[in-house]
Amino acid sequence: MVLILSIVYSIAEVRKSEAYVGLSRLKEYMNKEDRFDSLIVYHAERFGRDPRQVKRQLRAESNFDSTAVSTMGAAGLAQFVETTWGEWGTSNFNDASNPDFAIEAHCKYMNWLEKRLGNLKLALAAYNFGIGNVERKRPWPRETREYVKKCLAYEDEIIAA
After folding, report:
1. What is the phi/psi pair of residue 75, to 5°?
2. How many helices (H) and strands (E) would you count in the chain?
3. Where are the domains of the chain?
4. Is the CATH code 3.30.70.100 the one for domain 37-152?
5. For every one of its 161 residues, what pLDDT tens digit does the chain have, with 9 covering 90 and above?
6. Kindly report the CA angle at 127 between 138 and 151, in degrees rounded to 5?
7. Which among 18, 28, 45, 61 is annotated as catalytic?
8. What are phi and psi of 138, to 5 degrees?
9. Does residue 157 carry a catalytic annotation?
């Protein structure tokens, strides 16, 4: 009986390790730029966004690294700071590193910014530089000008979903 249980346990361990190796190999072949496309399409459609533009902006924000944290404390794919996350994400700032929550909050927030400011260019500037700075018509720093230019050039983004 002990021998049989030992054999069954060994087989289960081998299968578990084979499954792990299979998943590891799958991750090697997954393109990090495409792995969030289905979430991007889903949330973009929910909030009236162009999925290619959302993807370009996430590329600019975090290069698709859901664990990214900036020197300013912005976190996740969409690089939310804690105060903005509290308004547009969940009540837990740790959720900013959850791709589903981050993409949803990003699309919701960008939809609101564009409606409030009247166009995508101003919405992008507000996302990067702060809505107050944009509404007060403060001159955009070079970083914001380059960010807006990069995020507006989204026609060549490919959505794999």
Report:
1. -135, 155
2. 8, 0
3. 1-30, 37-152
4. no
5. 544 444 444 444 444 444 444 444 545 555 676 899 999 999 999 999 999 999 999 999 999 999 999 999 999 999 999 999 999 999 999 999 999 999 999 999 999 999 999 999 999 999 999 999 999 999 999 999 999 999 999 999 999 86
6. 105
7. 61
8. -70, 145
9. no
